[in-house]
Design a protein that fits this description.
single chain, two-stranded antiparallel ribbon, 46% helix, mainly alpha
């Protein structure tokens, strides 16, 4: 008896069968599933109508939103007005990030949005400045060339020093205060009226969350508030989320003028 060749039938989504060729109805079902998944990917990656027709559909890139730039025009001696820049062929696009999602979630709050465009702009500015400072030591790094017109190493070093100082000011403004209020008694360990501290928190599987830690996790690593709480052993309750959200927004307001 001759050995039968080992033939595997693999669909594009990774489904494998080795017993026999699929019946035609099973093949059609798999193909319909694949077509629906592909259509959903394309729809998710399609730019909004406000974007230029030159912005391609790219499922690997993910969803995008129209990019809007502004003109600041002086009005009189002490006032100014902000106007949107009009794009003749449609707006450029930028990838959606965590801050877009946070603004969308916040806009649905009954008591008004807690995370606004001001907070998102400050978060992106902090993220971009941190990336510029960290990448400026790379060989042939172009992070300052568009800012200074490629006028030489001296200008690049001046820009690096200015950005380093600006980032240090942001760090000082953010501070290292406690973002999650833990100055209360914990029934699991408090039998003698002691105030809960860092050591006691570790005994019950919790860790302190400082404001600087919160800002870095959200702005630089794009961690949600719920993920930050759970990573430090805290329940993602409404009260805990509200506490972190207030601390984050206050920190971003402190760095927004910088």
């Amino acid at each position: 008896m001759t050995d039968q060749p080992k033939i595997f039938y693999v669909s594009s989504d990774g489904l494998v069968r080795k017993d026999h060729p699929w019946p035609s109805d099973a093949i059609a079902k798999v193909r319909r599933t694949e077509e629906r998944a592909l259509a959903a990917q394309i729809a998710n990656a399609a730019p909004p109508d406000e974007c230029s027709v030159d912005v391609p559909i790219s499922p690997a890139r993910g969803p995008v939103t129209p990019y809007q730039d502004y003109h600041v025009v002086a009005v009189g001696a002490e006032d100014f007005e902000v106007t949107k820049i009009r794009y003749k062929s449609g707006a450029p696009a930028r990838a959606l990030d965590l801050f877009d999602k946070m603004m969308a979630q916040s806009s649905r709050r009954r008591d008004g949005p807690a995370f606004t465009m001001l907070h998102a702009m400050a978060a992106r500015k902090y993220r971009d400045l941190t990336e510029q400072v960290k990448s400026s030591g790379l060989a042939a790094s172009p992070v300052f060339s568009d800012k200074l017109g490629g006028s030489g190493k001296r200008d690049a070093m001046d820009a690096y020093m200015a950005n380093t100082q600006r980032l240090a000011w942001m760090h000082a403004s953010i501070g290292d205060a406690i973002a999650k209020d833990i100055k209360r008694k914990a029934k699991a360990i408090d039998n003698g009226g002691r105030i809960v501290g860092e050591v006691e928190l570790r005994q019950i599987g919790k860790r302190l969350i400082t404001v600087r830690m919160l800002v870095d996790l959200v702005c630089l690593q794009e961690k949600s508030l719920r993920a930050v709480l759970m990573a430090h052993g805290w329940r993602d309750s409404g009260k805990n989320l509200k506490t972190l959200r207030a601390a984050l927004c206050a920190a971003l307001e402190r760095i927004s003028p910088l």
